[in-house]
Each structure stands twice: as C-alpha cells, then as structure tokens.
Amino acid sequence: MLFITPPALVLFTQAQERTSLTKIGLRYISPSEAIKQLERKAPLKSLRPMGLENLFASDADNTLIAQGTAEAVAALKVILRSLDVKPVVLELKVQFVQQGENVIYLRLRTRNAQKGTVTLGEEGLATSLVIVPHLDDNGKSVSFEVIREISDPQNLSTTKKTRFTQAGTLGREVRIALPDGLLFLTATLVEK
Fold it and tell me: Is the pTM value of this prediction over 0.70?
C-alpha cells in the first residue's frame, strides 16, 4: 500500500529536524536580563533572531538554553557578545548648593545608565535628585540626565518633576543650574 505524505507535513518534519538545543554560558549579564534585552520592544525592535523557537534562562548556572536553527543560534551568540560585557562602574561626586551653602556633598557609585538617587529633607517632605550618567562610546565623554523631584508642602501627594540634561568630559566638573540651586557633578571611572 502506498502512502502519500502531504507537503505541509514534509515541511513541518524538516523544520523539526533542523532545530537543536544549545546551552550558551554568560559571564556578566544574567540570563533573565539577557532575555529582557533581546525581547525589548519600542523604541527598538526585538533583537531575537528569526528561526529561534525557544529561549530559556537558567540563572542558577548563568546560561541560556536556545532552541532553533543553527543559523539562528549563531546569530544569537553574536548578539549576546554585545550584551554580555563587563559593566562600567562610575563614581559620581555630587555637590548641591542652595543659597551659598552645601546641602549635599557626597560620592556614590552607579553603573553606566543606571540611576543614583539622592534624597533631601525629612521623610514625607523629601525632595530628591535622580542622576543617570551615560558614558559615551568613546569612553571620554559623559552626559548626565538629572530629574529634580520636589514635593508640594501643601499637598504631599503632588510631586513636581523637572528634567535636565548636560554633557561633559569624564573627570571634569559639570555645573547644572536647577530652579532651587546649583548642582555640580563629576564622574570618574572606577578601576576594574
């Protein structure tokens, strides 16, 4: 007796045969974070390669398990090389001056593009400075994104947020005029 295989079943069987499971070790980024980075949406499209059927995070042994075609897994490895890099740690010197007096003078460490928050005042009446440093690709320039949050004393549930951006050189002081004072920032690389 002769059996004829439908073309759709032939294609499905061939696709199943070409995929395999591959374990990929990571050094600096957690597998869960790698998946988030790969599947982020707006403003960038997903970085997940076509032909990659499944991707599993194993944070216990810091690996990703990928199922897909050989081409998709190879493309995934190339993308992961750009994501799995040693984080850049910056030390920020923060000085905030109001009416000629230092309100804040401190140093804090943060990773590139991760926020550092400084809180002023008593709890409940607190105001804050959120500082996000962005080290440029050249490794010599830094830009600061500063968000000044001030609570309304009459209505504590209302917070006014003002955003500022200022570029500067790594290791040199940047001065930012805020509505209620002056902010001086200096970012330096922490030795690896």
Answer: no
